[in-house]
Amino acid sequence: MGLLSDPSISTQSKLVDGLARHVRKVCLVLYVAGVVWFFCLALPEFNHGTYLSENALSPGLVYPEIRVDANRLAIQLLEELHRERTNHVSTTPHAWIAAKMNEFGLETHTHNYTLRYPFGGGKEYHGKNVYGILRAPRIASTEGIVFTAPYRAASSVHTDISPSVPLLLAFADFARRKNYWAKDLIFLVTEQEQLGMQAWLEAYHDGDRVPDANRTYLRPGNLPARAGSLQAALNIEVQDLEIDYVDVRIEGLNGKLPNLDMFNLVQRIMAREGIASGYKQAPRKKRRHSQSVYEQNLRGMLSMLASQASGVPTGNHGLFHRYRIDALTIAAARRQTHATLKGNPGSAAVPLLKAIEGISRSLNNLLERFHQSFFFYVIVNNDRYISIGDYMPALVALVACAFVKAYLKWATLPSASEMEAAAAAASAAGSESELPSPGEAEPDEPFDLPYGSVLIYLVATLAIGYLCNVLPLQQYFLEIPMGAAPLTTSVLSFLSLIGFILPFVVVLPPGGLELLHVAFLLIYGCAMIAIGLLNFALGFFVAVLTVPLVISLETSEENTKSSFRNSIRLLTLILNPMMIVYVIVLAMTFYQFPELPMQKIMLRAATAAMDASAYGLIDSVIYGNFLYFVVSTVLLPLWILCWTLALSKRRDYADYLDFDEAPSPQPPAPPAQRQAKLKRN
Amino acid sequence: MDAKFIKLLLLGGAARFYFCRTSLGTVIGNRVEFATPLNSHKRMQEGIFLLQNGIDPYQGDVVHETPLILSALSGLFRNFPQFLPVFYILLDIFTAALLYMMAQRFVRKKQDQQNVETKEYATDTTELQFSGSDKMDIPELVIVAYLFNPLTVLSCVGMTSTVFSNLFLAAFLYCLTKGLLLPCLLILAFETVRSFYPVVLLAPLLLTFSGRSIRSGFLISLLFAACCLVISVANFFVLNSWNFLDGTLGFIFYFRDLQPNIGLFWYFFTEMFEHFRIMFLITFQLNATVLYLLPLSIKLRREPLLLATILVALMAVFRAYPSLGDVGFYLALLPLWKRCWKFMAHGFVVFTFFIVTLSMMGVLWHLWIYAGSANANFYFGATLAFSTGQIFLITDLLFAHVKRDFCLFNGQKILIDGEEAKIVLK
């Protein structure tokens, strides 16, 4: 009860004063604790073995019935498809797919959609998906499961995954003959990578909505037939019928994951069929014993978080998550070594078909949506995971730094007497005679902090961030015949330039910087919590990068060396969101093309980063990826505040400027500065 | 009425008007944090539509507004729906004006009282006493806190009927400080029939008007009961049926709608076995009404307005369907106690709590309802933390008042054996 009914009269607490003197150390301890905790998570003691918690799934309870004839059908279909592909080099053989679905007795439909590409004067792209519904014999069409296979045209730059379609059709033919389905099965072939999938999902869920012509860039159209509420989806990407291993991909849009039960289910069934499968499964190389279990775990964790952080789905499954449909991709890789393992081509795909059958029969058993197991987890190994309760403390410890520092800053905000002393010193030193009014109340009155001007400053920085999000999509910019990448980058760099200049132009009244510091810390903490809840990986990485800067930022001029201050300023400049994006892209370019000279790599990274910023924007308007929003509207304003604090320009010696309010950023003419922005490659 | 006051009112109105013209209104109108089953604009529309078509709105389970309000607004809703936002904005501004005048009166009273007691005060307590500038400062702070608090602004933009509740409460407080017994009783009775919990405000009313005499207290209570009866009968004559009682008061008491909100009821009552429901209903409702009433009334018998402030705040925390608009209202009353602020130790912590939990509520609601990955526990965690923050604030205010009272007469620096003294509360 002492917390609430503190009996001491004085408001100054010795504990707070003591802590305030060591605020950096306290924060540093928290930071280190958070990072150490994160690294501990890779230890086997800190993570748990996976288990199936939804009993209805009962994986492997039935014997697989799919036989070698399905495999023969798949081979035959693959040959036919290859013949079709010679005629359709850059298009999808819709007619052939639809004809096959019809032949197998599915209720076949096609779905048309249009993409109105906003940039470069505007263009329209058309696309077409084919899907067949197998109506459940046991129940009315109230629930459905989706099996999808993306189709890539022969001219595509990506890996050829055309065997997925024959595999899907062969399974459809098998499923058609069975009478135990309790859910409609939808067999869907999409084109144009994720765009087709997104269009189909939008059409499925709100196809009857009349689109707002100006705001929507993807016009999904409507579907002629549906199959109830979708419970789960399985995306199949197979490079060949003879497979080496299966990579299970789970990361969805904005880092969302399917229920852990679904992943476990796939792992179990794959294990039963003897297929090497796993999360981020890679071809088996020479055995390397050098890696300890801990190192493997840590690598697994970090690679999962890295792919989650960008928020870009690793496959078509990721778009389902937005509609509360649990989905994942099984990506099978072509078998490379024919010499040692001589498989029988006549039955090569049987294990995979059996696995798909097993998964679909388990999904068929579901009585309600996946809800038992975890939605927030990090996979450390194929059979070990970390749940949200275990990994959240790491982020909380990092964010706690900001709040602890904010509290201690607040508790030691300059009081009236100090402020007056400072003012007197300033007026004695400078030629300017008077300070603006807020301090000159009665002597006993506590010093009035300039809440108003700090608030206006905050709003101005947030407005800059907001403009980043809105401005590139304004009609008058889109009409400029300029590519998406240069347009986005120029707008972004212009706005960050405004942010860069802002603290030079606007100087806050005395006490304003300290107050701004507290406000910055609070906003930073809240933003990190929100981002971390929505996408842990992104929040954690941003926090790990930025918390040291947040800890070391200091506005007071006393007892800090100028070299230290300058290094903080430099650090702040380096941690500009645009710089970070550029550095990330640079690192990736270097990793991919190590043979190029440095100059070329830097140039290439610059163009790649520009492209990435445009992709980020397009992703955010078409798919709803919020990475662009986070970087431009949350992190950029925070950086501007950071920069203001690192500069610590004071009214004392810049009094004559007398800018009270921030200038509102005007819509700019396209400027010439180029800087890199936003990652995603 | 000085120019600054008018300017502030206009500015507050302009801010509300600006947000009304954006799409924010519909967004807020659908947020559970602002629009509860009791105050949502949609339900009001539904009720008025039913009333106009001669259907008893209370037969269904949607409308929980009193018949008097429904029939009073039905003309406006039907004929001038485009002016509705302006109407709500005007009401909100009127609330702010009432609070301003109430604060002015309150400060004047305090200063009078101070002038009488000034000899008894200890020497180093000038900063605890109301100073000359407070006459302007405190009302201004009150009005700023009401007009520019995002919670009240959004609650008005979302056109929740919390705007009416706030208006009635402000009018009640104004009449209370002005010493107008009958309007006070009528307003309180009206608001009690509307939303039940304000019945606790009878305590500050009795303390203000009855003095020490139990007889007059008893008489006023009787008068209050009569007022409630009169208003109920007036409500009855709108539809010629008593259904509304179950639709409004019954709906509040029995907590029939489990839609999540920022309060504490919904989670417990979704989890509960049905046969414990009555017991917990009574417990929760006692907690929201009479549990704190008696001890607080005894402790704060000399400060009816502080009692009212704290009761309004407790109501906003513990009532069955609280909304952020209620929270915004009592936050606007805090500047009245500016002279206690020195002793409020948790102000910053509470503020941090508020912004963290409010931002988390949005995120967790998204994760629960739209993304489907989080669940009710996450969201309830955030609302529980929010309520905890509010409790911190209320207790802090209470203790600050107690400390100020003590220090005012005993001085701020009390040393016992060279060490700083601590107050032991017994």
From TrEMBL, chain A:
It holds the Pfam family Gaa1. Residues 660-681 are annotated as: Disordered. It comes from the Eukaryota. Keywords: Membrane, Transmembrane, Transmembrane helix. InterPro entries: Gaa1 (IPR007246). One of its GO terms (biological process) is rhabdomere membrane biogenesis. The chain crosses the membrane at residues 454-473, 485-506, 518-551, 571-593, 626-647. One of its GO terms (cellular component) is GPI-anchor transamidase complex. This is Glycosylphosphatidylinositol anchor attachment 1 protein. It comes from Drosophila ananassae. The gene is Dana\GF21062.
From TrEMBL, chain B:
Its main location: endoplasmic reticulum. The chain crosses the membrane at residues 83-103, 141-174, 218-239, 276-298, 304-322, 343-366, 378-399. It is a multi-pass membrane protein. It comes from the Eukaryota. One of its GO terms (cellular component) is nuclear membrane. GO terms for biological process: attachment of GPI anchor to protein; GPI anchor biosynthetic process. Pathway: Glycolipid biosynthesis; glycosylphosphatidylinositol-anchor biosynthesis. It is found in: Endoplasmic reticulum membrane. Keywords: Endoplasmic reticulum, GPI-anchor biosynthesis, Membrane, Transmembrane, Transmembrane helix. Belongs to the PIGU family. This is Phosphatidylinositol glycan anchor biosynthesis class U protein.
